[in-house]
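note to self — DONT lose this again. spent like an hour looking for the file last time. sequence + predicted structure for the chain T wanted, 458 res
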Amino acid sequence: MARYDYDLFVIGAGSGGVSASRRAAAFGARAVVCEEYRVGGTCVIRGCVPKKLFTYAAHFAEDFEDAAGFGWEHARPNFDWPTLIANKDAEIDRLNGIYIRMLAAAGVDLVEDRGVLVDPHTVEIGGRTVTAETILIATGAKPFRPDIPGIEHTITSNEAFHLDEFPRRAVVVGGGYIAVEFSGIFNGLGSRVTQIYRGEQILRGFDNDVRAALAREISKKGVDLRVESQVARIDMAGRHLEVILKDGGAIAADLVMYATGREPNTSGMGLAEAGVDLDDAGAVKVDRHSRTSVPNVYAIGDATNRMNLTPVAINEGRAFAETLYAGRPRFLDYTNVPHAVFSNPSVGVAGLDEARARERYEAVDIYKSTFRPMKHTLTGRDERTLMKLVVDAATDRVVGVHMVGPDAAEIVQGMGVALTCGATKAQFDATVGIHPSAAEEFVTMREKFVELEAQAAE
């Protein structure tokens, strides 16, 4: 007779939890996963997927305008927000159903309710208790909003996907990837957008050239970007909102969205009471194999606040299952994980930014290029693409790839493979480019940028 009801109990059916439970079941584990909202998690239900669909929608405004340069006339029809919402909802419902069917096909039990730890082997759910040999926390993260007067009048990215009316004037507070993505979405769909960020430049943690390039481009596209600016309060003013700044300025808005970070979704789950250590931000502390301070309790994904990306959570889940149930100990290497910002224009990154590379290596070579995308030679649009390579001078190994421009995510994904394989700048140079394409610029940059700077200074 089994000592526990299950071998594995997963709390949270997002990308990481689904991945871990399915893989564990494939290796023979008796697995169950619980979810209090909808199967699919932040990415599928209220994050990456619907946001990418909104990003596609937002770009059509420019595409219609640009069509004139290629001989198309009267190419800009009206935009209907309710149609976008309805079509997005239908797609999310479809994906939710797919995730549920995947769990069933893998033999994973699903309980659609909130799970709370009673002790290291027991979860209370739906008024009953379930025991498991191993428990995995995969509860993700949630939007954070500061406690300022009037914050109750604002929304987060969660609510942005379900607005009844499209705002004519929108204020987006924040400077991270969610903030710049939604600024581009609202701006592209026709809002007059003001983006407010307290720091000196958007996208903190990204390469400084990338940050500056994106700031220039989104400002050109009409976003009123205000850095080193802070909100004091939000007031109701009749049927609209007034955003009062700490410097005394005021901005009228129909919608105020806060994208000021996310926090691990770990409160009220009984983790600390069960002996699981959390950090000051509420993230679950884990070792490289995702094990917590309680030997049979593990955690993956945004709940651990390591690298909060959907593919990372999926890979952490797979590594967890392979380690425990397949006898193949494995952990994730975060060094060269490619990632993107679906702003307008988009950003793609793999490896180290220039500042971190200079901290790690004795000498660094920089190669970068800015150019007008070929498409805009006929549209006349003032948009520039940035491409940048960061190279360890001692080994010639490319340690960072950065891009701001159309299709950055699609292009940099391949660069991530090259970095994982340890490709050198000489190997980049020896690779034949696809012409004409933007991607070929990554294999045709020959002159070191630092050398050009030195020549200019002489």
